[in-house]
Amino acid sequence: MAGRAERLPLREGVVAWAWVSTVVHHLDDLDAAAAELGRVLRPGGVVLVRQAVVGRMEHITLYERFFPAAGARLAGAQFAAGLAALDRAMEAETVPAPVVDRLDLLVLRR
């Protein structure tokens, strides 16, 4: 079932919980997406928002190495350059290594 955060293909009050992970920066209309989550969330429902927050991204490996301007809105060329650098790093990696980063978790209850 396809949808957009600003227009979820769900009835009102049918969602017990929602997991929103590292997508906030991709939303066109954050207020509309939040209202839509509120519409589909049942009373007592929970929204978990896992996201890097501006001002708290200094130790996030992905941003630090490949998208250093991520604290601001990335221009298309900056994003493309970061993706190209990420691709090169993946090709060069000979021994897989885990990436461990800390992200903030915001818990909202209706």
Short description:
The chain is α+β, with helices and mostly antiparallel strands.
Q: Structural class of the helices, strands and pairings?
A: alpha+beta
Number of helices: 3
Order of helices and strands: EHEHHE
Termini separation: 25 Å
Q: What is the radius of gyration computed over CA atoms, rounded to a whole number of angstroms?
A: 17 Å
Mean pLDDT score, rounded? Answer: 89
**Count of all domains:** 1
- Report on the biggest sheet: 3 strands, mixed
Q: What is the helix content?
A: 25-40%
Globally, the shape reads elongated
Q: Which percent band covers the strand fraction? A: 15-25%
Question: What's the total count of β strands?
Answer: 3
Q: Which regions have little confidence, pLDDT < 50, spanning 5+ residues?
A: none
Q: Give the strand line-up of the largest sheet.
A: 1-2-3
